[in-house]
Every structure is written in C-alpha cells, then in structure tokens.
Design a protein that fits this description.
Lipocalin; eight-stranded antiparallel β-barrel; 2 helices
Length: 131
C-alpha cells in the first residue's frame, strides 16, 4: 500500500506535459478581427491588428504601422512584413486565458504576452499605413 501511495504522489508531483503550440486554425480563430496589445517583461511591447485573409498590421506603439501577412510553417506562426524580407516566426500558446508567444528566430527567445484586447482599430499615423 505504501508503494502505491508513493507512486501516486510521484505522478501527481510530476510537471504536466508541455502544451503544444497553437495550430494555424486555432491561432486564426483566436485572433481574427481583434486588435491585441502585447507586453514583455512587465512593459508595453506592441500592438497587432488581425484582419481577414491572414493579414496583419503591427506597431511597436509608436504609430508607425507595418502591414504584413502570416502563415504556418513547421508548427510555428510566421509573419512577413512590408519592411522586412525575413519571416518572424513565433510559437503561440494560450496561458491563463490569454495569448503568449515565444520568438523562435533566436536562441534567446523573447516571450511576449497578450495584455489586452481593445476591440477597435489601431491608430496609424504614417502616410503608408491606412486601413
């Protein structure tokens, strides 16, 4: 009986298996039509508007907005923006009911998190922006 109890306690104390990243379908269902603000290390990081057709508009909260598209590759959500030729790839997860993301292009991966959903279009003040 003691051995069974110890085995049960060991199983309960073991960490839960890591959550797999969101699929493209789950990411699209969660984000489409939203404008999400992101934080990093307790500070504001940026805002992204998710449009139909996997289109996005990103800003580092400086009103300089960049249009882009996203796609899934190798289980990651990758973004291509108008000002860059290299994709920016992230793994997305739901944690405590909010989106979190780990940047996968570097070994010292940045993790950002959803700080709020404002429910309106973001403001872009650059001539090339729009929307």
């Amino acid at each position: 009986m003691l051995i069974r109890t110890l085995i049960l306690l060991a199983l309960l104390a073991a960490p839960a298996p890591a959550q797999p990243p969101m699929s493209a379908e789950a990411f699209d269902a969660y984000t489409r039509g939203k404008t999400l603000f992101y934080g990093f290390d307790g500070q504001p990081y940026g805002v992204e508007q998710y449009l139909d057709g996997r289109r996005v508009i990103w800003s580092f909260l400086d009103s300089d907005c960049r249009h882009g598209v996203w796609y899934e590759e190798a289980g990651q959500i990758c973004f291509l923006y108008e000002h860059r030729s290299d994709p920016q790839c992230w793994s997305y997860f739901i944690s405590d009911g909010r989106l979190t993301a780990r940047f996968e292009n570097r070994t010292d991966a940045t993790e950002i998190y959803e700080s709020e959903e404002i429910g309106e279009k973001m403001q872009c003040f650059t001539p090339e922006a729009g929307s």
